[in-house]
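Incident log, entry 3
Record: EF-hand domain-containing protein (77 residues)
Problem: checksum mismatch between cached and fresh output.
Input:
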Amino acid sequence: MTTEQELQSLFNTLDRDQDGKISINELFLSPGLSAVISSETSTSSPQELLLQYDSDEDGSITFEELKKAVEKASNLT
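Fresh output:
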């Protein structure tokens, strides 16, 4: 389980270009952090995360999309 502040910190670390989105490439560049996201969202891979939670279908995950995924997995405290 994670707090919203911890999730924001993780998101900011993964968002290497600081554009407010995590791309599939950014997820693959940080496999350890990507594994944390997979466990917190109950998804098995970055691709699955994008397929399930990329609501605007732009090929990346915003903080709000990531937050929804973590909330759905009941891992946000």
